[in-house]
Each structure stands twice: as C-alpha cells, then as structure tokens.
Amino acid sequence: MDYGSIGFRTDCLLDLLKEPVVAAQEFFVLGGRAFANIFRRPRYIDDTILQMDTIGVGSLVVVAMTGFFSGAVMALQMSAALATYGQISKTGTLVSLTLARELGPVLSAIMLAGRNASGIASELGSMKVTEQIDAMRALGTDPVKKLVTPRLLATLIMLPLLTIIADFVGMFGGFIIADWFLGLSPKQYWTTVWQALAWKDVWEGGLFKPAAFAIIISITGCFYGLRTTGGTQGVGRSTTQAVVASIILIFVVDLLITKIFVFSQGA
Fold first, then answer.
1. Which of 138, 183, 202, 252 is deepest in the core (most CB within 10 A)?
2. Would residue 140 be called left, alpha or beta, if left means φ above 0 and alpha means ψ between -120 and 50 degrees?
C-alpha cells in the first residue's frame, strides 16, 4: 500500500474543503454580527430608510409584474387541468394556495436577489477595492454596523411587504383570466380565494419564508461584496457569485421550511 499517495490525496481533499468551510464560517459570523448590531448604538436609521427605498420601493414594479403574470399563467394552467374533472370553479382556490404558500415568496425573493443581492455586492465590492472600507475602519466606524446591518433590516422589513403585494397582484391576475376566459363570476372567484386561505398560509408564505429569504439575500450580497478582490473584474465576479448563491440558498431553505411546516401539519 502506497501510504505516500494516500496522504497526498488526503491533503488535496482537505485543501479543497478548506475554502468552503472557511467561507461558510465567515458567512455565519457576518450574519451574527449584523444581527447583534441591531441592538447596539448607533443604529444608522437614515441609512436603513434609504436602503428600504432602494430595496423595497425600487423593486415594487418588477415584483408586482412577476406576481401578476404568475397568477395569470397559474390560472390558465390550473383551469385546463380542472376542466378535465369538471371543477373549473376551483381555479381561485388553487391559484391562491399556490401563490401564498410557494410562488409568491419564492418568486419575490428571486426577483429581489437578482436586483438587490447583485446591487449590494457590487456597491460594497466597489467600496472594498477602492479602500473605502479600510478608511472607515481607520476612522473608528464598524463597516458591518454601517453597511451590513441597515441592508439586513431594510430587506427584512420590505421583502414580506413585497411578498404580500405579489400575492394579491397574482390573485388579481388569476381573476382577470377567470373572468375573461373561464366565465367565472367575480364573486365566485374571490369567494373561493378567500375560503381557501388560512392563517397558516399567511404565516408561512407571507411572513416566515420572506423573512428567511431576506436574511439570505442581504447577508449573501454583503458577504461577497466585503470579500471582493481583484479590482473591477473582482467586483463583477462577486456580483455574479452573490446572485447565484442567493438563488440556490433560497431554494434550499424553501425546501427545508416547507418540509418543517408539512411535517408539523401532519403531526
């Protein structure tokens, strides 16, 4: 047995695992510091409000359009399937449940990740490569408190609101299809929508999932922005990594949260 080659392969494997493990550790440390800074002074309220405008109001149109067309497409798809069983009147039920539980929070988070995780990473990455963050430290300002915490708070506040808007606009898109193409009356559609929703759906899809996704988007964007190296090329690389990592983590966490809620419901 060639123990030298085994040791070499082991060292190579450890070298491959070292960077992801260190990156994960730094990610959780950054998130922990950002959350801890919420309860410490100064709180940089003006920066938080500015980020709420940039992240929330700036993303309103794209999130609303995504929700509208998702609801419309969902109504068309569901009506075709339900017509086979003569249950086309249940279109509103399936549209509302699908949007509230899954499509609303996930699609809103993906839109926000594409628009704001990239923006956060590029903004902080530009500050990093131009040494503005080092100047901040030299002046006694904590970059995590000044730059990361306001973006975390703003995303935590705005993403649940955007998700609620996307859900309602998506249901309205489903209503347009139901009224114009399926022959359902407004009262029939909106009654089935209202009766299908429960407080669990509002809690899971309207509050819990968006809050988890908000943490992912903001911390991931800040994480890749603060570790940017290599000048302008590094900024572009960090921006791409932030978007890809955010979207992947959104789907992973969505699966975990859905499993938890489904398991608790079954229990």
1. 202
2. left
Rounded to whole angstroms, the Cα distance separating 189 from 185 reads 6
Q: Assess if residue 27 is contained within a domain.
A: no
Q: Note if the pTM is more than 0.90.
A: no
Spatial separation of the C-alpha atoms in residues 251 and 137, rounded to whole Å: 35
Q: What 8-state DSSP symbol labels residue 39?
A: T
Give the Cα separation of 189 and 198 in Å (integer): 17
Q: What are phi and psi of 44, to 5 degrees?
A: 50, 55
Closest by Cα among 148, 108, 59, 118 to 240: 118
Per-residue pLDDT reduced to its tens digit, 132-184 = 888 888 888 888 999 999 999 999 999 999 999 999 999 999 899 888 888 88
Cis, peptide link before residue 160, omega less than 30° from 0? no
Whole-angstrom distance, CA of residue 155 vs CA of residue 216: 10
CA pseudo-torsion sign 171, 177, 179, 184:
negative
Q: Are 106 and 208 in contact (CB under 8 A)?
A: no
Residue 107, domain member (yes or no): yes
In a domain, 57, yes or no: yes
Provide the number of structural domains found in the chain.
Answer: 1
Q: Which spans in the chain are helix H?
A: 3-37, 45-55, 60-83, 91-98, 104-112, 118-129, 132-138, 143, 149-180, 186-196, 199-201, 209-226, 231-266
Domain of 250 in residue numbering reads as 45-266
